[in-house]
Batch of 2 targets.
Target 1
Amino acid sequence: MAISPDEARRIGQLARLGLDEAAVGRLAGQLSDILGHFAALAAVATDGVEPTAHPLPLRNVMRADEVTPSLTREEALANAPEVEDGLIRVRAVLE
Amino acid sequence: MSELWRLSAHAAGEGLRAREFTAVELTESVLARVEAVEPRVNAYITRMDGIALEQAREADARFAAGTATPLTGIPFAVKDLIVTKGVRTTAGSRMLENFIPPYDSHVAAQLKRAGAVMVGKANMDEFAMGSSTEHSAFGPTANPWDTGRVPGGSSGGSAAAVAAGECLAALGSDTGGSIRQPAALCGVVGLDPTYGRVSRYGIVAFGSSLDQVGPIGRDVEDVAAILDGIGGHDPRDSTSDPAPSPDMRHYLGRDVRGMRLAAPREYFGDGIEPGVRARVEEALARLERLGCEVDTDLSLPMTEHALAVYYLIAPSEASSNLARYDGVKYGLSARGGSMWENMERTRAAGFGEEVKRRIMLGAYALSAGYYDQFYLKAQRVRTLIAREFRDAFARYDALVTPTAPTVAFPRGAKLDDPYAMYLNDALTLPASVAGLPALSLPCGLSEGLPVGLQIIGDVGAEGAILRIGHALERDLGQANRLAPLP
């Protein structure tokens, strides 16, 4: 299972990791090696086997729609890198 | 009285209740020990000396008022992905280097409610991704048994702090072995509870269907008492088990005669060091002498696939969970370019190499064209692994295996080979993907370094594995073992 540098570059862009070319080459090799060790998985018979998303048999856990105490606006914004008028300031999404 | 840091948590609790010493004296002893050994161990990212002494004074007030609990006054290390209100929580990452949480995680609140003392935030592999605590943005932690070796990971700071006397007990988190493997390598006791036993509210997320908080202590009684203090239903975590959590200490000190154990063959294969295998086999012989039935013929053929299943599912969940670190709401934020440039610069600078590797692996396994082949396939095989365990627990009360294939290895030995590092978790991953509880406890030394024995239980059966572990620990006569660190 080989991952080409082109594929590694594409995945790195999807994940917004800002990889440089050296990292792309290194990660392509390492990921190819890791996935190579996982090849035996393909041979396991799984026809008709349901996937497990998480181990507890819990479904649709709901809570009552009630107002409970929460963070103040100041607390919620205390870690934001840029705040203006009680709001998080962000770069324009559409230029 | 000068070396109170040597006590187990339950022995310290007895001393506190009997007024032989105060919580302030106990905490001062631990803080002096931290001061003495921390330059060699680096178990903590953030020390909390002032808060610890304040909490110790409050604990003494509770002893005076008669409102103390079993954890009151006990000095704890808390893994630095456990969110603590007003105290920096980094998850071992540059991304969160300056993050001061505005709220407490459920487990931090439970420790405070119980009157425990927090000594500091323990070092860890970045975002809990690693098996050696070398992937921390705040420098590696050393193994107190041999400071040239790793303590295991990712809860390496928590395990090393317990072994070095820099706390009496600790909280860690386990996704694929991150409590049990460092506990094994540092010669202490670690318990990964059943998935859903302990609330994940306020735990920095790695693999949400696998992450579980649990205790690390100097003996089995301590981890049982800590689980009693932190376990139970929390409505703020939708995967928290609503069933009541039983009193774990109730299972200790009981006879283990007639208990049915199996040592599955797949856990004793070629990758296991001879010294590790020998100590675990000796422990199995002890359990037989204590009256357990031990079957060494059981085969669990799905075991070999657990590593691939885990290293597809956990990175997939991580790639999704870590998408939140975008430099907008909190955490590191690189400024000066367009929105996309800022996001890429933030993530390039904030994440370390192993985190990037796992995000890549997960994003690949989830991407169009590979989802069925990798992620969905891993989820189906996950079902088969859980089913195989379920069938085994119809016949056995617990499974006994080595915790890790080797003793602690030298720092740097596996840093250049990610897959070799992943193999450290080969014996702890199967229970993780099935959501089962598993205990690691020391069962002797090999080459002068601790060997860990793992006891895996059925869903919700922490009581059974604590009962077996407690009986074995008594028989071995090695409770409360500290590392020989001067």
Target 2
Amino acid sequence: MISHLVCALSLVVFFILQTTIFSQARLIAGSADLILLFLAAWSLQEQVKNSWLWTVVAGLLISLVSAMPFYAPLIGYVGVVAISKSLQRRVWRTPLFAMLIVVFLGTFFQQALYVVVLLIIGAPISWSQSLDSVILPSVLLNLIFALPIFAVANDLAGRISPLEVEA
Amino acid sequence: MKFLNFRNLQTIILIVVISGLLFLALSGYFTPVFNLSLNPLISLQSWLSVRYLSARDFLTTPRDVTQLREQNTLLESQVSQLQTQLIVMEERLGEAQVCFALLDFGRTNPQYSYIAATVIGREISPFLQYIIIDRGTNHGVRYGMPVVTQQGLVGRVDAVIAGAARVKLITDSTSVVNIRLQSAGIEAQLVGSLTGDVALDMIPLDQVVEPGDVVLTSGLGGNFPPNVFVGQVLSTQRRENALFQTATVQPIVDFESISAVLVVNNFQAVDITPLIPEP
């Protein structure tokens, strides 16, 4: 129960930080995605069992706020957590390394999905400009913020687990 | 006769002498005598007083330092409080200046009525250029309403809920605004981009566009009111075999630091999509 509460509160905090601060902190035209980073870090924690549920909730929440088509953020975050879960089983001994790989692949997947969706709805954007101006800067920013977010998620998960064992 | 005995006579003479001396002293006749006799006394008094004060200062200095330190701490705390107040006042002044500027814009464009709103967030996806404002349907904001600042055009309301609205900026890659170049009288389209830059498209090749030309909304298409300031032409580009020339535009609004906007709530956007013939 407390795990759900902590996850919900963390998502709200990261959502507020994302919309107010991190969306404005641009590198060229790219920006960091704290929700993606938190979901990736949270799903990499061994003791966490509710990552799929909160991924869907976060996807729906972002879909409501974002101007992207409704399904795009949801699919993006589910894809990131899928990558995270598949890597968790393979490189579980080095979670930090797994986090960096998940962020790298996940950001590419999410941004590429956004480009495809925008092209489908008729936005006049090109792959090369998207890669240069948005995707690569976003990947770099996400990699920079990956470690502190992972530390926060790891700490939260570590504090929650003993409480749940006691309960 | 008993009254004039020796003792009484001595007393009377003494009183008369003292009175005379006082009279002479007050009249200034004794000044040289006083100077001669009192100056050494005063000098001695001064010398002694200076030494005493020095000795007292030397002995009581530690107490004064403590007092000074206390006073210094007190003053430092007061300075900190005043600095905090100054920062708060500067923030309020900045907000007031924004409000005055918006009010001034409203006064200079009295044909429209406005809803003032604060920017409370930005689009999460870096591919899109949107802002979120703190006014929604509860405050009269409706879909399609144009959004401006005191400087010029910002965008239009794209989605709205009870307490907030999402505004599509003119810098968004899917945004198209029909504009008019003030000096040349040319009509064209202003399009956004992924990076937030805006450019003019659909400028006929035979028209001359100069850097510095003022870009205003034309009102065509029914999405924006006419004659709202958008920006200035920076440069033009002509490509061979192209049907139209293009131009880069410097928007008048600084979209990075935009904090408050005005929603034009009495402009009715017209959807002319059904009137456009399908190819």
